[in-house]
Write a structure and sequence with these properties.
3 domains, 35% helix, 3-stranded antiparallel beta sheet, alpha+beta, disordered C terminus, 6-stranded antiparallel beta sheet, globular
Length: 366
């Protein structure tokens, strides 16, 4: 039987095989920047093998790693072939095919956002007296999740039953990965594969990886350090407590229809709305600038939120796109990559307008 807690010294291929034996779908990332290995030469410029049609790719069965996370597998033969070709590749795990959800609790900065009452838990308006120690005591994603647990889970939010034990992983940046069994979507027989990724939507410095998104494998070692398993077993990943299941489904379940655009503010309130949008971008850029890990996800979350606020603020994507790209470049991302991330996230945000924020910096109402 494979070990349920790989050691930090396990080779990448041994780790990948252990995870696959436990039912985790894995694929390789480059050792350099933790991105999926590029398509093979046969597929890279082949119009008959588009990235979203990976099932038509003949190369995957032939031992190539084309199409990144879409090629994730538990097949030991394919895994062995991949790592024979790139022995130092970093194992990653595809959340949806593995039947898992990853709650990524970041520790990118210990300074709360500029407006913690509105931004620590989007959708909830907090007061300082709800938090022991006040807003200044909330330093990272783990603190935000504990706060949400107090508000939604009651006095005993974390069941002691092993059936609720996630695989808990300490990340090199000081954050935490919590791998849970994916919850079922009510009335949806396709279950976890219909969940979606949610970056920053549950809480500040909290990203949820589901469906075709992925995370660094528990036990993997990157240039930044090792993703060390602290608790839980790979073969028996626990389910979320009820309160957390409800919150995760709230932000990751597929949307039926985009909400209608919010009413635009007028006159003086319009100026305040534009100022609020600029403050969101400035705060996000400031949080992004010092990051060494998670820059792409942070830029994507910022651009997505900005896109969602554009209709309300009466702005267009051309008004903000270059500022967002420059924020990505300032964090160290290549310009071409920053533009690709911003374009995609802005487009997605525009398709799902956010309601007018109730914020002390604005006096508008939807």
């Amino acid at each position: 039987m494979p070990s349920t807690a790989p050691t930090a010294t396990a080779s990448p291929v041994s780790l990948a095989l252990d995870l696959a034996a436990a039912g985790w779908h894995v694929f390789p990332l480059t050792p350099r920047d933790k991105r999926p290995l590029a398509n093979c030469l046969d597929c890279r410029d082949n119009p008959d093998c588009p990235a979203d049609e990976y099932t038509r790719c003949r190369c995957i069965g032939g031992g190539q790693w084309c199409h990144g996370v879409r090629a994730a597998t538990t097949d030991p033969g394919r895994i062995t072939t991949w790592w024979r070709r790139v022995p130092a590749a970093i194992p990653a795990v595809a959340a949806g095919p593995s039947g898992l959800v990853l709650i990524d609790l970041d520790h990118h900065t210990d300074q709360p956002p500029a407006d913690p009452a509105a931004r620590l838990l989007p959708g909830l308006t907090l007061t300082e007296n709800q938090i022991p120690g006040g807003f200044a005591a909330v330093r990272d994603g783990a603190d935000v999740l504990r706060l949400l647990a107090r508000l939604r889970g009651g006095p005993n939010p974390w069941p002691a039953d092993p059936a609720y034990q996630p695989v808990s992983v300490a990340t090199p940046s000081g954050g935490r990965h919590l791998w849970y069994r994916a919850p079922a979507i009510p009335t949806d027989k396709t279950n976890h594969r219909r969940l979606r990724q949610a970056l920053g939507e549950l809480g500040w410095q909290i990203d949820i990886k589901a469906a075709w998104s992925y995370g660094i494998a528990p036990g993997a070692t990157t240039r930044a350090g090792t993703y060390t398993i602290r608790a839980g077993a790979l073969a028996t990943v626990g389910q979320m407590p009820g309160w957390l299941t409800r919150e995760v489904l709230r932000v990751t379940a597929p949307r039926r229809e985009p909400p209608p655009p919010p009413s635009r503010p007028a006159g003086q309130d319009r100026g305040r709305a534009v100022a609020y949008l600029h403050a969101v971008i400035e705060d996000g850029a400031a949080e992004l600038a010092p990051l060494t890990d998670g820059r792409k996800a942070a830029l994507s979350a910022l651009a997505y939120k900005t896109g969602g606020l554009l209709a309300w603020a009466g702005q267009s994507r051309t008004d903000v796109q270059d500022r967002l790209v420059q924020a990505g470049i300032a964090s160290g991302l290549p310009e071409r990559l920053a533009r690709r991330i911003v374009h995609r996230a802005l487009t997605n945000g525009l398709a799902r307008p956010l309601p007018a924020p109730h914020d002390r910096h604005t006096s508008t109402t939807p």
